[in-house]
Amino acid sequence: MQGSEETTGVEGEDKSTRSPIIRARDLVKNYGNVRAVDTISFEVMPGEVFGFLGPNGAGKTTTMRMIQCVSPPTGGTLSVFGLDVRDHPADIKKWLGIVPQETNLDPDFTCIENLLVYARYFDIPAKEARQRAEKLLAFMQLEEKADVPIDGLSGGMKRRLILARALINNPRLLVLDEPTIGLDPQARHLMWEKLKALQGMGNTILLTTHYLEEAERLCNRLVIMDRGKILVEGEPMDLVRRYAGDEIVESEGSPQVIACLEETGCRYEVHGDMVQAFSDQPRVLAKRILDTCNPGRVFVRRGTLEDVFLSLTGRDLRE
Question: What is the CATH code of the structural domain delimited by 247-302?
């Protein structure tokens, strides 16, 4: 956990540096004749939360695996902490904290035992490992569950324990794959609170998520990928303004409404029995539809990252 006395980073590191934690240039990954990642470039800066979004098969998990040094790139360059992933995988891995999508805690151990056993992989002395484990359990609001077997935990508690485990080695980079998958709203919000607190302590966080609200709340910057390529990169709200607008008009997609929208010349999309219209003056457009187009119902809502995502990647189901 960054921001404490026991957090040191790389010895001799200049704390004022703003070199990227991750730098990818023309990164490629092939599996046989299939190109899973197709010539992508991006940088992740110290202290930011950076997100990878995309439908299934977009290439985001493959990209994360290359960053974690478990799958070598086919082409291009990729460095983490200034080290090439091909040449220095062991040096990189010791500074990573990994939160996998699956729950892979050891059911034979209690909460604190899971942390203590994991600490051995990083050669952390037993006394120090226990101090770190107790501190992390308290941070994750799990101190009362320290001696409880894993089967006695709720889903939200297990996800918090996995995050605590990922922090046992004081990583410089947290890599989270769907960190709140399967959680109820209360547990999800608690995880968000902990992740924002970790960022406030100076941690750099890389995440993938299918929860667009999660990305909107947590990420300083993100990329949206599809079919191995990066479609867009930027701050969530900037992407919303650029590709969806601050507000969107929604109405029943009757022929009369469609005819009205055609007359205005504004951009619109029909989705089932609803139509979404995009305009620089959404409230004026909504009033016009209401007054002249017999819409049944019409309303104006805030544009979201989900609107951007669906606009760029489409609405077809990906398996």
Answer: 3.30.70
